[in-house]
Fold:
Amino acid sequence: MSFSKTIRSAVALADKITADLQVDVVHYAWIGTDSTYGAPEYAVAVTRKALVELKQRVLKTADGQDFVQKASITFLRPITANGAVNRLEPIDLRDKFTLPNGYTGPVKLVEGLANKFADSPYTLEVVLG
Structure:
């Protein structure tokens, strides 16, 4: 069995074991900017199952700015690329998420374990500020 297959199996098992802990998170994928007003435009909302951990701690963005992390969203299922021009796939920092408690803080960090056999990482963690 290849290491990649082992990881896929482990993530699938984690998804199954944590199914009762996963909640519905609404994902609005950024698809561009309105040419008239410059406002962000989003695709139709998609509801995804995820583990959500509410937190309050200070972290740094990639460019070194401090921010207060409010939540961590962990996706254990693949997310299909949106395909919009100039976005990072499968999650872009300009995407929006709404948690079950209504919180919609900005995406500050996106991390995941890369999968060379698929367009989506094995797992994804999205940090909201």
In short: The beta strands are 23-28, 30-33, 40-42, 46-60, 66-75, 96-98, 107-112, 124-128. DSSP finds one helix and eight strands in the chain. The chain has one domain: 3-128.
